[in-house]
Amino acid sequence: MIQLVVWYATLLFIILLAVVFGWVAFSSKKKQDYAPIIKRWYKARSIYGVLLVVLMLVVTIYTLRELPFNEPSHVEGVEVIPVHVEAFQFGFELNMTEFSVGDTVEFNVTTKDVTHGFGVYDPDMVLVGQTQAMPEYTNTFYLTFDQPGTYQVLCLEYCGLAHHMMMTEMVVK
Prior knowledge:
Mean pLDDT: 87
Low-confidence stretches: none
Order of helices and strands: HHEEEEEEEEE
Largest sheet: 5 strands, mixed
Radius of gyration: 29 Å
Strand order of the largest sheet: 3-9-8-5-6
Strand content: 25-35%
Shape: elongated
């Protein structure tokens, strides 16, 4: 029943739009003096433009202050376990692969060859953290393990013919 109502409402709305478009098309063929209209709306257009810019600045400033860029991505005072990760074609070398539930890990990710992705997947294969591994640069991200199991690390950036085999595991007990 509700689908039928929605269908008729949509059909009515489409017909109404077609009528409005038809009216605009037929009335636009009439010759009119547009100078008074242009003069009046140029002023309104400049006011509208200024208001739109101010509104967008306010919205941008309001929403940007909610971003977490200036806040640590881990809880202050919690012991952080640093893990050095080096990606290479076609694997990852981690200096530590066993953790406990509740551990907060600081992954320092780099590579010597080409750009790689470093994606950490939980035991249900849901992406829980990721960063890029770039030559001559170290990206850092923090991850707190909240469930036990085997976490997969997969490359998220195509890096060559064996890219699909580039993976490793971490165990959380």
